[in-house]
Amino acid sequence: DSLIAGEALSLLVTCLQLRSQQLASFYNLPCVADFIIDILLGSPSAEIRRAACDQLYTLSQTDTSAHPDVQKPNQFLLGVILTAQLPLWSPTSIMRGVNQRLLSQCMEYFDLRCQLLDDLTTSEMEQLRISPATMLEDEITWLDNFEPNRTAECETSEADNILLAGHLRLIKT
Q1: DSSP the chain
Q2: How far apart are CA 106 and CA 162, in angstroms?
Q3: In this structure, is the dihedral angle defined by the CA atoms of residues 71, 62, 130 and 88, taken in order, positive or negative?
Q4: Alpha carbon separation from 78 to 3, 53, 63, 117, 140 (Å, rounded)
Q5: What are the pLDDT digits (tens) for 84-104?
Q6: Which of 14, 16, 11 lies closest to 26, judged by CA?
Q7: Can you name the residues that pair with 92 across neighbouring β-strands?
């Protein structure tokens, strides 16, 4: 199943790259933002999440200069990622159900977010109203307020470690 999902995603990205003039149609599909977040963060399969991260990054590199009316894929993907309502900035990792699962599956989300932010030029940051200083302040505030879930051996949980690693990578970016 993971292999099929990865290949299907690869096919989708290849089709979008070959027909970059159709990207706007893809962007406007119902629930496309939910699909992106679900496959990147919600899949229980690490293989699918990794394939999603890699393929979405590949999509972000698609050249749309021949179609100036089409939003660049990196800007679209960043818009989706930056506006998604996720529990990854909660001051505690003690959660239930789906939210707890998302915390332990967030590595690929942070990987893609950092890669997309890394590729932005200063003018693109201004255009997208992204302030690195504000993002850094938000991350420092989150770190100050975060209370890890300790195990009986006084170690942090795996979900906490993954979440902290993602936030630290975001700060580094």
Answers
A1: -HHHHHHHHHHHHHHHHHTGGGHHHHHTSTTHHHHHHIIIII-S-HHHHHHHHHHHHHHHT---TT-TTSPPHHHHHHHHHHH---GGG-SB----HHHHHHHHT-HHHHHHHHHHHHT--HHHHHHTT--HHHHHHHHHHHHHH-B--B-TTSPBPHHHHHHHHHHHHHHH-
A2: 7
A3: positive
A4: 26, 13, 16, 8, 21
A5: 998 888 877 666 677 777 888
A6: 16
A7: 147
> Which range marks the domain in which residue 135 is found?
2-172
- pLDDT digit string, tens, across residues 117-141: 999 888 989 888 999 999 999 999 9
Residue with tokens 């970016």: 173
In the block, tokens 């890890």 appear at 148
Residue 172 contacts by C-beta under 8 Å, 6 or more apart in sequence?
Answer: 114
Residue 30 has pLDDT above 90, yes or no: yes
What's the structural domain count of the chain? 1
pTM of the model: 0.87
**Six-digit token string for 115:** 């890669």
